[in-house]
Amino acid sequence: MNRADHHVVIVGGGFAGLTAARALDLAGVRVTLIDRRNHHLFQPLLYQVATAGLSAPDIAAPLRHILRRQANVVVHLGEVVGVDLGAASVRLAAGTAMKYDSLLLATGATHSYFGHDEWAEHAPGLKTVGDALDLRQKLLLAFERAEATDDPVERTAWLSFAIIGAGPTGVELAGTLAEIARHTLKSEFRRIDPASARVRLIEAGERVLPSFPPDLTQKARAQLERLGVEVLTGRPVTHIDANGYRLGETYVPARTVVWAAGVQASPLGRALGSPVDRAGRVQVGPDLTIPGHQNVFVLGDLASVSQNGKPVPGIAPAAKQMGRYAAAAIRARLRGQPPPTFRYRDFGNWATIGRMAAVVHFGRIKLYGLLAWWGWLAAHVFFLIGFRNRFVVLTNWAMAYWTYRRAARVIAEQPSGAPHFPQKGDT
Amino acid sequence: MNRADHHVVIVGGGFAGLTAARALDLAGVRVTLIDRRNHHLFQPLLYQVATAGLSAPDIAAPLRHILRRQANVVVHLGEVVGVDLGAASVRLAAGTAMKYDSLLLATGATHSYFGHDEWAEHAPGLKTVGDALDLRQKLLLAFERAEATDDPVERTAWLSFAIIGAGPTGVELAGTLAEIARHTLKSEFRRIDPASARVRLIEAGERVLPSFPPDLTQKARAQLERLGVEVLTGRPVTHIDANGYRLGETYVPARTVVWAAGVQASPLGRALGSPVDRAGRVQVGPDLTIPGHQNVFVLGDLASVSQNGKPVPGIAPAAKQMGRYAAAAIRARLRGQPPPTFRYRDFGNWATIGRMAAVVHFGRIKLYGLLAWWGWLAAHVFFLIGFRNRFVVLTNWAMAYWTYRRAARVIAEQPSGAPHFPQKGDT
Nearest-CA residue of chain B relative to A40? Predict the structure, then answer.
């Protein structure tokens, strides 16, 4: 096949898709990158947008801008709703189809409520910029409502926060929220003491950060408790509504519940018709393609692949490695060579907890506390796209950690000019 | 009256209201500041948020945070819907009432469509953070739609922008939008040339920036045209719909129309029952109070007051002076002294146009071009609240002016996960 005619369609501009597009620079192929959103999002810092430490543009950059110098790439803002493997084309929500020679599916994952989709409106999750801005508004307004009410029962419910799921996102949110209540909002209210807010981190499993070894898990838990988080493990939530949640036999009134418990792969995975795992991730071979279609790659959180008996984790470094691999495999095939086998390189497991606290597990190295936090910060800021963003994020962080202030505490009103207190059922 | 029992209610946390609250520090009175929004907004830079140069938190700070050390101030997030002068109380949207001893009304102004409210959905204005984020999305999506369509007529309509009204906001928006089309988006699109976008600034009156002397108006027009803006004066718009607008006899297809033509005072002005001018501003005496109510002040854009036969302009420095004056008048009355007369000090008329271009008129001084721009920048950044904000805004500006990049080009998706192309009628 003529290389210049080879059309690579990449669906999803996250870590996997964007890395693949960049790695196909000068490959002599045409590339179309399709995303529903106009920006690449640095998802590991999204919890900072939700907790008003960063503004959305600090961690998001327009895909067109990132790829503007790469003449072989077309960025298309649109939504892919299906794949026709026989015709080698993707179907767009706008009704059109687009042919591909190689297809890279990297549409990531979304929340899973384990069959309780009715919980979604009461316990929003955190995956997109929109989610983060909604959650920021919800968190800030809860303190406003507590200040405004004269009813002590109402007030307690507004000052009761629950984060469900103690993976990295849940731990980050709980730690930061406790910090906001205890320090950031200090002396700003006249009728309530924000420090009296209860921040609960609820986990159905036996421990927080289950992907870490037990001793680091213990350290993480101790650090969370020092920040003022109540950690409840081995306690599944059995019901959530607008006014609270049920924990075993007890109904706990709480107006702010955040879902960080489960993810499922983007529905495009199932739409492919190839075998998927329980979470909807597409089972791919050691070359990250689906059976019978050597030109259809599935990457990042959408892919289920194991190595040495261990699943490759759904984290940014793994997604980037998959993107780089897929580009290399396409280049090899166009040269008529067999593609290499994907080999995941583990750069460790990192989680931050809050003010100067983190845990890091990397081979035989286990770190926690301040040192781990510095490592976490360096790694995350280094990988942010764009010099300006790194600079702004570091500045914001430095200011926030010196002063406990958070720069982005803006509640943008609804365009309708509606009152700014959320109604029951609002997300 | 016992000073500690004196309750000052301030409605509106803009320049007038916030300045008054601060000036009442240590006055020995109780102060309640009521606002529908949780933040003070530095409105003179709002056009930068709309044009993706700044993020909203860069120019907005939580009122609670600004006033946290002032123990005599309570910040209340809520909406005042009426004033009962007889009972000396304000009515809140939540249904409650609040008594005052002194009342300061400073709820500002909003857009006026001169009786054509049906234009509002097609030609949004720019007054709030929500307006700015909506407008940013509209502007960025217009280029995406132009890139996506195959129909040349559609494409032209998407690349046709109109700003209606050539006051300071209209001029700033038109200049910045032309800069985005010609420079910022350069080489990011593959099918359209963003520089081919037509940016029209349409004014019913005879000249742009009518509050400036004619020679500076001429300079401003020349600077706009150099940036690529088509300036049409003496041309009233007679119709606006989702697909374009009518200019005299000609219907011009345009998918993006922005309203910067008229303002009217907040409806709370009329609700007071005191005489108002044509724009709904409350006519106040030389002590900024309404007739018969020496304890009811009206401040900022909501007030109509003249001095030496000239109306005091609706700009931030005037609002701040009014706020400071009202605080001084209350202090004087509590000491049993007659209040001073309000005297507006004119610090000049400033307007920025775009890249290193501005006009300044201050007494006999008339500046334009680069020098005026530096003056404008210095004055505006100096008055921004908070060291961090000044620093971030200056950094953003420096980066934007060296590189033409704009930092905040994020289109946040709708929470519903709806497709990201606006439908007809969306604002």
Answer: B410
pTM of the model: 0.88
| Partner residue opposite B140 with nearest CB, options A36, A38, A58 | A38
Rounded to whole angstroms, the Cα distance separating B58 from B45 reads: 10
Written as one letter, the residue type at A54 is L
What is the arithmetic mean of pLDDT over B104-111?
95
Contact in structure between A413 and B129 (CB atoms under 8 Å) = yes
CB within 8 Å of chain A, chain B residues 32-51: 36-39
A65 touches chain B (CB under 8 A): yes
**At residue B293, does pLDDT exceed 70?**
yes
Name the residue type at position B337.
Q
Catalytic residue among B154, B172, B179, B225: B172
Q: What confidence score (pLDDT) does residue B414 get?
A: 42
Q: What proportion of chain A, given as a percentage, has pLDDT over 90?
A: 74
Q: Is A172 a catalytic residue?
A: yes
Question: What domains can you pick out in chain B, each with its CATH number?
Answer: 3-36+78-111+263-334 (3.50.50.60), 117-261 (3.50.50.100)
Answer whether A188 sits within 8 Å of B395, measured CB to CB. Answer: no
> Chain A residues with CB inside 8 Å of B407's CB?
57, 388-389, 392
Apex A262 CA angle, A113 and A324, nearest 5:
130
By residue count, chain A amounts to: 427
Q: Reply yes or no on whether the pLDDT at B417 is more than 50.
A: no
Q: What is the pLDDT of residue B386?
A: 66
3-state secondary structure of A106: coil
Q: Tell me: the pLDDT tens digits for A51-63?
A: 998 888 889 989 9
Report the half-sphere exposure of A273 (CA within 13 A, side-chain side): 8
Question: Rounded mean pLDDT of B226-250?
Answer: 95
Selected for mutation to probe chain A from B64, B68, B137, B268 (highest A CB count within 10 Å) is B64
Q: Measured between beta carbons, which residues in chain A are less than 8 angstroms from residue B79?
A: 419
Are A295 and A259 in contact, with CB atoms under 8 Å apart? no
- Phi first, then psi, for residue A284 (nearest 5°) are -115, 160
Bridge partner list, A304 = A283
The distance of Cα A70 from the centroid of its chain, to the nearest Å, equals 27
- Mutate which of A188, A397, A405, A423 to disrupt the B interface (most B C-beta within 10 Å)? A188
